[in-house]
Structure formats: C-alpha cells, structure tokens
Design a protein that fits this description.
six-stranded mixed sheet; mainly beta; 45% strand; Ubiquitin-like (UB roll); Barwin-like endoglucanases
Length: 467
C-alpha cells in the first residue's frame, strides 16, 4: 500500500470517529406536559437547558421533575400550575400545583382553625376537598367567631363557623329537634348581623281521621302549630280547640276535615187522571188515550261531611253534619193520564123466558139479595128505598156512584127478572155489584156472578163505568 492511500484511510477514520462522537452528544429526550408527550433530541446535559433548547417554557409555579438543575436522564415531566382565586379582603390570584384546597391556602399562608368555614366555588366544602386543576377555582374562608345566643336556658356563647348556628349549638351539647326555631336561621354564620336566638320546640299531637300525628312546634297558638308541622286546616276544616286558641297543656289538637258536595234530590209528582168520552167507541169499553207521566220536583242540596276522631280514638269519617237547600225547581211537569170511555150506544135484543128484551150493555155482575129485615145490620129492618118506594121484588140496589146515573133505569137479571134501580147499597169492593130486592116473605138468597143486561135506553152519564 502506497503512502497516499494510507493517508486517505487515516483521514476517513478520523472523520468517522468525529461523527460518532457528535451522534453520541445529540441525545433523544421525552417531555411530558400535563399528560401530553413530546419527543425530540437535544445537546444539553441539564433539565433546564434541555427544556430551553426544546422551546418548552416553564413558570416558577410549575412543577418540573427532575428539577431544572438536575442532569438530563432522557425524560422530563412537567405539571403546569393552575389558577386559583382566593377571596379575602380582596380577590387575589394564586398559581399552584396543589390539588387539595387546604394545601393551597397554606401556600398563601392561610391556616384553617376549628369552626372556620371553607367555600369552594361558592359551595361549603371540607379542607380536604380535591380540586380539578384543569379549570380555575375560587376559595373563600369564613373565620369562626364566638357569638351570644339566646336559648331557653339563658344566654350561651357558642363558636359559629362553617357548621352554622344549629351545628354550633349541637356541638355545645344542646338537644335540638326538627321543630326548633332559629334566628336568623339554623345555618346562620358569624358574619350575619342581628340577634341569635334558639327557641326549643315542644311536642304536639294532632288527632286526625287517619290517626294521631306527632310533631314538634314552637308556636303559641293551635293554628300556628298546625302550620309549622304541615297540617294547616284547609277550606272549611276546623280544629278543637279553635285555631286562635293557645296551645293546650296536653298538646292534643283535634283536626276535623270538612268536605262539601252538592247533590240534586228528586221527588216524583203524581199525575192527575182525566176522563174523555169517545164517541166512536161502544159503551162499556175503556181505552187509555194517554198513559200519564210523573213529574219531578228537584232541589239542589249542599251536604257537609266531617272526618274526625272522637274522644275515644275511634274514627268517625263521612258523618253528615249539615244539609242546606240552595234551590228548588220543577224539573218536569206531570202529564195527566187520559182515560177514554165509549159513548156509542148499540141496541141489541135478547129472547128471555120473560120475553124479548132490548139492552145496551151486558156485563158480569156479582149479584146478592136483600129484604127489609136482611140489610146486613143486626136487629134492624127498613122497607123504604132511596127512591121512596117500598122494598119488594122488582126493585134493585146499586152503589151510590151508579145510582146517580142509573136511578129509574131497568136491568134484566136471569133467574130474577126485570128490576128497576131504586135503592143504594154498600157494594162489594173490587167488583161490579147488584143487590136484587125481595120482601121478607118471598126472600131468595143470591150470591153469584150473573150476566146482567142493562135495558135500553142508556143513561146520559156513563162515567160510572170507568174503573
């Protein structure tokens, strides 16, 4: 190998060694900023120099691991400081990497004492509350203070802080109940002005239709006590004792629930019966021209009911205590029943043992007989009829209603013969009746249903035929 080639080989060796040395000094680096990863190469040998060379800026409040003056190891982790506003006499901005609210305050030199109240973003929170540093927060401290509170046992001094008035009293050993009253409020803070008051409640029992409900109240009257425990009377409800009465010594209140309904009561009104002659209908026939309809008398009635518990603890629900008629009116007028009776006379003839007869009506009649001393009255005789004639065979009696129309007319009774209507009898209820007359000497007993023929001419008054 000649000298020139050896010199060239030596030169390449020197250049290759220098290149390897340079590559060894240009080192790879991983930078993680709040979870985001950046990979690069740097010449620097320290953390601070590498960050500056990579163009990553940091603030004094940011957390850098390893520290800026530490030797570079190939990885740097940065946690950016988050803004936290601290409200005091003035609003100040604090940058921190602390995620615990109490530690942030310590960085600002603010120490929390027992009874102090911490607010995080406007809400009460304990000092160990963890902050989400991805967004800004506001911290505020209400220092605890000793305040005088008027209690049922006198004036007490308690420490008010983030617990509020009720918790401060409880911490001082006071027994509190749901019905107690606090002024200005159970969660009052020392920053609030005015008197601080705790009024202890007393037990009350309310007897309702659903049982006895117990509660606690500071009210002086029955009505206020019911309002405090959520059982205020509604509408027509009332209490025993009355709502404006002082709370009873035994604490027992009776609450009577009152409800009203409006009902319409209907009373049927009877209809009249009217009679109408029918000239085209044969005598003796009855037809209903109009059936008739009941009317309705209505009245509007207000009904009051009470639900309560009696003195023995028994429920008395749905008791009607009053009814008031508010209106009365005729809802429907009655329609009369119209009964039509035939007035058309039809002359008919019949052969009888006594000879032919002409009649206008034949009917099944219950026939009895009587004589002067067989009138149905013990030890009494009378032979004078209503027409003034002496009772004998050939005279017959009908009811008073029939007599007014038939007096003097004649009937044919088979087995008896022709009789003239001349007397009035009592009749038999529910039957058409005729009493044939005899003297005492020729008396014949009759108690049978017979077809009786009413001889021509018919009377003008036919209303007696109507049942």
């Amino acid at each position: 190998m000649n000298a020139s080639r050896l010199r060239l080989l030596a030169l390449f060796s020197i250049l290759g060694g220098a290149g390897l040395l340079v590559l060894g000094l240009w080192r790879p680096l991983t930078i993680v900023v709040d979870g985001e990863t950046l990979r690069t190469r740097v010449w620097s040998r320290t953390v601070g120099g590498a960050l500056a060379e990579a163009g990553v800026w940091v603030r004094p409040e940011d957390a850098v691991f390893p520290p800026a003056d530490a030797p570079l190891r190939g990885r740097i982790t940065i946690r950016r400081a988050a803004p936290v506003w601290i409200a005091g006499e003035r609003l100040s901005l604090h940058l921190t990497t602390q995620s615990i609210a109490g530690n942030v305050l310590l960085e600002e030199g603010m120490r929390l004492f027992p009874g102090d109240r911490l607010w995080v973003d406007g809400n009460p929170a304990p000092p160990e509350t963890r902050l989400d540093l991805r967004r800004p927060h506001t911290l505020q401290v209400s220092p605890a203070a000793r305040r005088e509170v008027q209690t049922p046992f006198g004036v007490e001094r308690v420490t008010l802080g983030n617990a509020g008035l009720a918790d401060a009293l409880w911490g001082a050993g006071c027994s509190l109940h749901n019905g107690d009253r606090f002024v200005p409020g159970w969660d009052a803070l020392p920053s609030e002005s005015g008197a601080f008051l705790w009024a202890a409640s007393r037990p009350v029992r309310v007897a309702t239709s659903n049982g006895v409900i117990t509660g606690m109240t500071t009210a002086e009257t029955v009505g206020d006590a019911l309002a405090q425990i959520g059982l205020a009377p509604q509408g027509l409800d009332y209490t025993l004792p009355p709502a404006d009465a002082p709370l009873p010594e035994d604490g027992l209140i009776r609450l009577v629930r009152v409800r009203e309904t409006v009902a319409v009561e209907q009373t049927p009104l009877p209809f009249d019966v009217q009679y109408q002659p029918l000239p085209d209908v044969e005598i003796g026939e009855i037809r209903i021209v109009q059936a008739g309809e009941y009317g309705v008398q209505a009245r509007q009635v207000r009904l009051r009911y009470e639900d309560r518990q009696d003195e023995d603890g028994q429920d008395e629900n749905g008791q009607e205590t009053a009814r008031t008629v508010e209106a009365s009116y005729l809802a429907r007028e009655p329609q009369p029943r119209i009964v039509g009776y035939g007035t058309k006379a039809v002359k008919r003839t019949l052969q009888t043992p006594e000879g032919p007869i002409t009649y206008w009506r034949a009917a099944q009649v219950y026939v009895t007989s009587y004589s002067p001393c067989r009138l149905g009255i013990p030890n009494y005789c009378n032979e004078t009829t209503a027409s003034g004639q002496r009772l004998r065979k050939g005279l017959v009696a009908v009811t008073r209603r029939q007599y007014a129309a038939l007096a003097g007319s004649q009937v044919y009774v088979p087995g008896y013969g022709i009789g003239t209507v001349a007397d009035i009898g009592a009749g038999v209820p529910g039957r058409e009746w005729l009493d044939v007359g005899f003297t005492d000497e020729d008396f014949e007993p009759w108690h049978q249903v017979v077809t009786v023929y009413y001889l021509w001419p018919p009377p003008e008054d036919l209303t007696w035929l109507i049942p």
